[in-house]
Specification:
The complex is a heterodimer of chains A (119) and B (105). Chain A is built from no helices and 11 strands. By secondary structure, chain A is mostly beta strands. Classes of the chains: A mainly beta (119), B mainly beta (105). The interface between A and B is medium-sized, with 18 and 22 residues.
Chain lengths: 119, 105
């Protein structure tokens, strides 16, 4: 089955760190560009960042609100995508979705994992 | 930075009616625009890409049109399961519009 399954969400204090994981299956993960998209409670969708496949350079790109604080990485041997989140702020509270990119569109989504930043 | 503006914010219609949702870009995005559907408690789902191409498994009642700065998602005859929030997205910087909520009248 083609799917993405996120894990690692939870409650963290402002200034803290958290690492999200996304396990991919049913497609050739190593060839895929991957991305994270988040959604604050009751709000719209916000792109967080993306990572290219290693064959395309493996480079990353981030949205302005998270640049310098969040890092996306991948382990193709484990078919897993990561999102390392540091210096978390209350405004980072959201459901974080792992997504696969196809021609720059998000064609596969996980169910999401909730990150709550609160003291 | 290209900004996408969706209208209306909320659309109230009845099953069987035709729905027309709009997405306007602050500058031309050519045909590089997608539409997503999100139901409560679920992840979004890709409906339309490159303005007018239906994604795999998407019913034919969903259609997209437009190019440049003005785009439309049309649902020809609303089914009960179509009531949801719809987002447009352009691929130059992956940003989304703010969404249109399609609700039952």
């Amino acid at each position: 089955e083609v799917q993405l399954v996120e894990s690692g969400g939870g409650l963290v204090k402002p200034g803290g760190s958290l690492r999200l994981s996304c396990a991919a299956s049913g497609f050739t993960f190593s060839n895929a560009w991957m991305s994270w998209v988040r959604q604050a409670p009751g709000k719209g969708l916000e792109w967080v960042g993306r990572i290219k496949s290693k064959t395309d350079g493996g480079t990353t790109d981030y949205a302005a609100p998270v640049k310098g604080r969040f890092t996306i990485s991948r382990d193709d041997s484990k078919n897993t995508l990561y999102l390392q989140m540091n210096s978390l702020k209350t405004e980072d509270t959201a459901v974080y979705y792992c997504t696969k990119l196809l021609n720059w569109y998000f064609d596969l989504w996980g169910r999401g994992t909730l990150v709550t930043v609160s003291s | 930075e290209i900004v996408l503006t969706q209208s209306p914010a909320t659309l109230s219609l009845s099953p069987g009616e035709r729905a027309t949702l709009s997405c306007r870009a602050s500058q031309s995005v050519s045909s590089y625009l997608a539409w997503y559907q999100q139901k409560p408690g679920q992840a979004p789902r890709l409906l339309i890409y490159d303005a007018s191409n239906r994604a795999t498994g998407i019913p034919a009642r969903f259609s997209g049109s437009g190019s440049g700065t003005d785009f439309t998602l049309t649902i020809s005859s609303l089914e009960p399961e179509d009531f949801a929030v719809y987002y447009c997205q352009q691929r130059s910087n992956w940003h989304f519009g703010q969404g249109t909520r399609l609700e039952i009248k």
